[in-house]
Amino acid sequence: MTTVLYAAEAGVATLTLNRPDSLNAVTRTMHGELKDALARAAGDPAIRCLVLTGAGRGFCSGADLVDSATISGGVPDLAKVLDETYNPLIRSLRDLPKPIVAAVNGVAAGAGANIALACDLVLAARSAVFIQAFCKIGLIPDAGGTWFLPRHVGRARAAGLAMLGDKLTSDQAESWGLIWKSVDDDKLVGEVEKLSRHLAIQPTVALGLIKKALSAAETNSLDAQLDVERDLQAIAGRTKDFVEGVAAFREKRAPRFTGR
Fold first, then answer.
1. Helix, strand and coil percent figures for the chain, each rounded to 5
2. What predicted TM-score, i.e. pTM, was given to this entire model?
3. Residue 73: pLDDT above 60?
4. Domain residues of the chain, as ranges?
5. 4-199 CATH choice from 3.90.226.10, 1.10.720.60, 3.20.20.150, 3.20.10.10
6. Please, which residues have CB within 8 angstroms of residue 198's CB and are 6 or more apart in sequence?
7. Rounded to an integer, what distance in angstroms lies between the CA atom of residue 212 and that of residue 14?
8. 150-165, pLDDT tens digit by residue?
9. CATH class, 204-251 region
10. How far apart are the C-alpha atoms of 145 and 122, rounded to whole Å?
11. Which sign, positive or negative, has the C-alpha torsion 224, 230, 231, 235?
């Protein structure tokens, strides 16, 4: 069975984690297929936005702890697992020069929660929950969890989420600034489609540069970030979409961006 489904329409590539019987728990096989799917979308100029979601009633329950490729002989080399799978995945999501929308259709637990947080905009069904479940099995949040959480919700809430492993509802996640929006379950698909298709007709290069600038800002001083803005703006200013955006503004019409 293919563990990551790939579909493309109207400039949007939808990647669906496809192990619904395990709430889309991640195996090494899934990591490989997700890596290939991301590379496929990144290399296709017709794709200008990605959606990441899960099949069935969950988004992703984290690592499959019974996956023999993840833990063998009861003695896991978790550093190796992270180096070979989750760390490259999180870097790929953050570095992809196209916007990524996470459509969290159900539980997002452990690494699954942090995979969602690595995306650019997170929309979650109102019934969805986010759980930093690592402490329940004697681990720390990985897949970027200890980096994302304090930056999104502050250290106090990050510590509570990480040390207690409690469920966080999508409404709470939105009010805390952890995700972009919580929506009614029956409206999630429509909201995601509307948002992703909007992003797919925007100036793609500029959106990729915005991702890069925001990532740099997490650790830069103001002076350093001003230099980053200068350098990235120079790139944006050489795009065809910038020329089109200015022309549309002057002509009082909607711009026709091509992503170049």
1. 50, 15, 35
2. 0.94
3. no
4. 4-199, 204-251
5. 3.90.226.10
6. none
7. 22
8. 999 999 999 999 999 9
9. mainly alpha
10. 15
11. positive
